[in-house]
Design brief:
heterodimer; A: 388 residues; mainly beta; Sulfite Oxidase, Chain A, domain 2; Immunoglobulin-like; 2 domains; B: 328 residues; Cytochrome Bc1 Complex, Chain D, domain 2; 11 helices; 5% strand; globular
Chain lengths: 388, 328
């Protein structure tokens, strides 16, 4: 008598497995085939200019695997031959310069972990609970360790003139992505990165070179970076006027809303990852981040915000990087209203969705960092809901 | 610190890449274009996605109208209703449009298209001409309604002490995502997602899927097929091919050879000329396809295919080989 998984000889204990080099670039176990980025087809006109989402509910720790980092393209993935890669610095500089990829790799390197969150993450939830799964409500984010060169170092080679107040990174792809960035940020912590999590950037993340703009909205992290122009005023290009401006209820719009405010979400349980073990010891886990610093505290409620508990943050607490939290409790099998609430190093407290709507209305698309609620029923199934 | 790396950019190199334009006119090249010139270019290159009057086809961006909608529940953000600066239109059209054929418009064509987009937004009359000289005199109506980020002064920013116990008396569920049911189904999900009861609340239409590349075993030159796949990138914005390909702006191209022109099953957006050509006996063969792709409008005068044609015979042969290698 006993568990046949133990008492019977299993095929993997009896037969030889595959040798080395069967997959020279390794793949996840075939039992993990459901762990993948996914899109929402009705969101956009065409997959070439669209977005897919990181499966946050399948991940743990704080680092996002390269193949699961969400994608957002405006003209598809550029296929750039690294031998033909060039980075140009021009505009208000002493010397307009061109670098090859090899040149860039000869500058002193830095390794830094940062989250990249699309400003439109949770944007489909402004008018109410809409998508069932944290992959869709919160999956336009990833957290990666970049290797690259300080943008400051690169700009210093060209010599920024005293009237150089803004920079404009430009992508080499068919959408020629451009954004205006104030010189203070450019000289602070931005990176010109060529590696992620130890390997070359993936094509969909900007191979061979992308800009890293820590804590600021993902659209500014220009992929396939080919040029940085220095100027004395912002360019007001499409992605900072028509898009990535926050329309308020009164019809006026905020612009240059760069920082990503503190935010958190419970990834397990969630609609794609219900509780399947029944009552008893239960682990609630999720992620929290702030574009303005580190996360100091995460609070978790199981009763819809009547009472809150300190969650345990485990793993590295890096500036502008994702944090992992856990809250463990004895589930009695009764329905739950789960929420998490982040507090960052500036003291900012993640607001409720209704607190945000009171200021912002429902039309602003971007920068929705409101508290997410999951309803857990007696069976352990989760649903995206909003509560009073 | 200087590392002695990189080299100076030549003036020609800077000119090739530095094509951006600013609201104060910096970067605008010499040139001009009229509304009527713009209309002609727009109909040929833009209307297929953006609609004859800028009203948009499917989920492609709406370019005109929407005035007085910014405070409504469904704001329509167009050049006329929302965009603050005309330079953004010129810059974006010139660097990134038409979708799938970026940087193919001349400076004069871009001036003309910008003029026509102003006309579609009731900003100028039909006899207007936009030039480098009059460009910066123009103001878009919504310019004054943008203001800098003021989140630090807003109510949600002010330092608050978060409540930890007995924070509210009772809690009710006020909205549920399962009722709306717009979450995509996941056939490979480890666990089923919530069952829905109603159909999509959004105005969204399902988008077409990307062509899946499928390897078959045709009796053709694989290198040529591979090259054709690259050439087909020019076509991908409008046409899908491969397993599961669906109609997009243009019909899917599976099994196109042997098909009578203008008869792809379920495709309703053919031009009258294309349907007529089919009725008169045009069947897609390697020869007729090569002739069409070389100069579409020479063969089908008012075809809706907004594509100038493939100039190189190598590209023509390659893309035909690629299409032929696709599944039957």
């Amino acid at each position: 008598a006993g568990d046949p998984a133990i008492t019977e000889v299993q095929p993997w204990a009896n037969q030889l497995g595959e040798g080395v080099d069967v997959a020279p670039y390794g793949m996840p176990s075939k039992y993990e085939a459901h762990v993948r980025r996914r899109d929402v087809p009705w969101l956009t006109a065409d997959p070439v200019s669209s977005v897919n989402f990181t499966p946050l509910h399948e991940l743990d720790g704080v680092i996002t695997p390269n193949g699961l980092c969400f994608e957002r393209h405006h003209g598809g993935t550029a296929d750039i031959d690294p031998a033909k890669y060039r980075l140009m610095i021009n505009g208000l500089v002493e010397k307009e310069l061109v670098f090859t990829l090899q040149d860039l790799k000869r500058f002193p390197r830095q390794n830094r972990a940062y989250f990249l969150e699309c400003a439109a993450n949770s944007g489909m939830e402004w008018r109410g609970a809409q998508l069932n799964g944290c992959q869709f409500t919160h999956g336009m984010i990833h957290n990666v360790i970049y290797t690259g060169v300080s943008l400051r170092t690169i700009l210093e080679q060209a010599g920024v003139k005293t009237n150089g107040k803004w920079v404009m990174p430009e992508g080499a792809d068919a959408s020629a992505m451009t954004r205006s960035i104030p010189i203070e940020k450019a000289l602070d912590d931005c990176l010109v990165a060529f590696a992620m999590n130890g390997e070359a950037l993936r094509p969909e993340q900007g191979y061979p070179v992308r800009l890293v703009v820590p804590g600021w909205e993902g659209n500014m992290w220009v992929k396939w970076l080919r040029r940085i122009e220095v100027g004395d005023m912002p360019w007001h290009h499409r992605e900072e006027t028509s898009k990535y401006t926050d329309l308020m209820a009164n019809g006026k719009a905020r612009r240059f809303t760069w920082e990503m405010d503190a935010k958190s979400v419970i990834t397990n349980p969630s609609p794609q990852a219900p509780i399947t073990h029944g009552k008893g010891h239960t682990i609630i886990t999720g992620v929290a981040w702030s574009g303005r610093g580190t996360i100091k505290e995460v609070h978790v409620t199981t009763d819809g915000g009547r009472n809150w508990h300190q969650a345990r943050i485990d793993g590295p607490s890096w500036d502008k990087s994702m944090h992992r939290f856990y809250y463990e409790f004895d589930w009695d099998g009764s329905p739950l209203l789960l929420q998490s609430r982040a507090v960052d190093s500036t003291g900012y407290v993640q607001p409720t969705k209704n607190e945000l709507r009171a200021v912002r209305g429902e039309n602003s698309i971007y920068h929705n960092n409101g508290i997410q609620t999951w309803h857990i029923n007696e069976k352990g199934e989760a649903e995206n809901v909003e509560i009073s | 610190e200087s590392y002695g790396l990189g080299r100076e950019a030549t003036p020609d190199e800077v000119a090739a890449w530095d094509i951006d334009v600013r609201p104060d006119g910096l970067g605008l090249p010499e040139g001009s274009g009229t509304v009527s010139d713009g209309e002609e270019i727009y109909m040929e290159r833009c209307a297929v996605c953006h609609g004859d009057f800028g009203e948009a086809v499917g989920r492609w961006p709406v370019l005109a109208g929407g005035q007085d909608t910014l405070t409504s529940a469904r704001p329509v953000k167009t050049i006329g209703s929302y965009w603050p600066y005309l330079s953004t239109v010129w810059d974006y059209v010139h660097r990134a449009m038409p979708f799938g054929d970026a940087q193919s418009l001349s400076n004069d064509e871009t001036y003309a298209l910008t003029a026509y987009l102003m006309y579609l937004n009731d900003l100028v009359d039909e006899d207007f001409e936009l030039t480098k000289e009059n460009f910066t005199e123009i103001r878009l109506p919504n310019e004054e309604n943008f203001y800098p980020d003021d989140r630090l002064e807003s109510a949600v920013w002010k330092n608050r002490t978060p409540c930890m116990t007995n924070c509210k008396p009772e809690v009710k569920i006020t909205a549920r995502a399962a009722v709306i049911d717009v979450t995509p189904d996941d056939p490979t999900a480890a666990h089923p997602t919530g069952e829905g009861t109603e159909t999509k609340a959004e105005t969204a239409e399902p988008a077409t899927e990307a062509a899946t590349e499928v390897a078959s075993a045709p009796a053709v030159d694989p290198a040529l097929v591979e090259k054709g796949e690259k050439v087909f990138k020019k076509c991908k914005a409008c046409h899908a091919v491969g397993e599961g390909a669906k109609h997009k702006i243009g019909p899917h191209l599976n099994d196109v050879f042997g098909r009578t022109a203008g008869t792809a099953d379920g495709f309703k957006k053919y031009s009258k000329d294309m349907v007529k050509a089919g009725e008169e006996g045009l069947v897609w063969t390697e020869e007729t396809m090569a002739a069409f792709l070389a100069k579409p409008k020479a063969m089908i005068k008012r075809t809706k295919m907004a594509f100038a044609g493939l100039k190189k015979e190598d590209d023509l042969n390659a893309v035909i080989a690629y299409l032929k290698a696709m599944p039957e």
